[in-house]
Specification:
The protein is α+β, with helices and mostly antiparallel strands and 74 residues long. It has 2 helices and 4 strands. The chain has a two-stranded antiparallel sheet. The protein has a two-stranded antiparallel ribbon with strand order 3-4.
Length: 74
């Protein structure tokens, strides 16, 4: 599989073929090796940075289920 570098505005762009399934908006860390190879690594969120836990984590109420279980055991 080949891709060709293109100029888009002031940036050089490499197109990712559709066969390589990447979700829209995925961020990558980019590294260029001494031999010219370019490596794209998916960027992972640091769980200790930011306030992501206030919006990403949803707490569910399991008390109702627990009450049902408690009544069966009494």
């Amino acid at each position: 599989m080949k891709v060709k570098a293109r100029i888009v505005g002031n940036s050089t762009t490499l197109t990712v073929p559709a066969e390589i399934k990447i979700s829209k908006g995925t961020e990558f860390e980019v590294e260029q090796l001494n031999d010219g190879a370019i490596i794209f690594k998916p960027k992972h969120r640091n769980p200790f940075e930011g306030n992501w836990f206030k919006t990403d984590i949803k707490q569910t109420d399991v008390t109702t289920d627990m009450e049902d279980l408690d009544s069966e055991w009494n």
